[in-house]
Amino acid sequence: MNPNEPTPAENESIPATDNGDRPGPxxxxxxxxxxxxxxxxxxxxxxxxxxxxxxxxxxxxxxxxTRRRAEEEMSKARRxxxxxxxxxxxxxxxSLEAAIAQTEATREQxxxxxxxxxxxxxxxLERNKVVPIDxxxxxxxxxxxxxxxxxxxxxxxxxxxxxxxQKGYLIAxxxxxxxxxxxxxAR
Length: 187
Prior knowledge:
This protein has three helices and six strands, in the order αααββββββ.
């Protein structure tokens, strides 16, 4: 900085020139006049600080309220998500209770009722995106969907499914229960 140049504080008291360096009094966008009194400047700064603090606290409160509302909505969604599924299972329960109440039914009638109830249950599970994992023999073992119970010698490729001991299930493409399988051992 050149010692002969005025400091910015001194610059404020220098009148504007017509050379275009600084806006003159004729310009529409003249900067607001700053009070010369330090006490007035301090009061203005404190007022701006109070306004900014208030705006910050309001924004913080609004963010907190938004977060709290989102948590409440998520909690309700979790709590009541099972409601539609449970409601769709009620007819299956009704069918099972009706079957138990039929003491005079023949074996064929009971078997027919069990098949009808099973179809009803399959429909409920399918509507609720619960699909079985039932890999056919020879399918490559997938540790994400299958759980190997044992490895057995077999006339097929190693690490492929030999038998399914218990079906697994996916719910919306997420494993609910892996399929229990036996796997072909290496030869």
